[in-house]
Specification:
Layout: H1 10-14, H2 26-62, H3 65-97, H4 103-128, H5 134-161
Helix pairs in contact: 2-3, 2-5, 3-4, 4-5
């Protein structure tokens, strides 16, 4: 009997109260999360490749040296903001959809770390070295870190795509 003298039927005893605090039912939404992950990686790789290869080439051919420096100084922080948001979103989606230890979570988490290092530590050094002998080395290191981050996004994409929907 419950408080107040109410009786509990056998059927209601068998049902446990639902205390599921999961925001997204992972099993039901695994395919959706996988498709969101794949779409986000595709977007990020397209934007990353465009900003890495196309925009600088066009800027070098069109702008003069002073306008080019100002343009690149304004563009690359925005690139790193986008890359940070994408890597963080992929890490969160990966942890919800695939688990914390899955490659689809770990690869973008490492990419996020590389992106933050390149943005916070390396970018100011590259911008300060414009016109010096150290610029080429620092710029190459920055470009290499960006490429590694994009490869990690691609690795996460492959890992996410290989997961079979329930």
């Amino acid at each position: 009997r419950l408080r107040g003298g109410a009786r509990v039927s056998a059927g209601s005893r068998a049902r446990a109260p639902s205390h599921d605090l999961t925001l997204i039912p992972v099993r039901k939404e695994a395919a959706t999360l996988r498709h969101l992950y794949v779409a986000l990686v595709g977007f990020a790789l397209g934007v990353g490749a465009f900003f890495t290869f196309v925009v600088p080439e066009v800027a070098f051919s069109v702008l003069g040296p002073h306008a080019l420096d100002a343009f690149l100084a304004a563009m690359f922080p925005r690139f790193y903001v986008m890359a940070t948001i994408v890597a963080a979103a992929l890490t969160v989606i990966g942890s919800i959809g695939f688990g914390v230890r899955h490659l689809a979570t770990l690869a973008p988490a490492v990419a996020l770390l590389l992106t933050l290092i390149a943005w916070i530590w390396l970018l100011p050094m590259v911008q300060a070295a414009i016109g010096t002998a150290a610029f080429g080395l620092l710029h190459g290191l920055s470009l290499g870190m960006d490429m590694i981050a994009m490869l990690l996004w691609l690795l996460g994409l492959v890992a996410a795509w290989r997961v079979k929907a329930p």
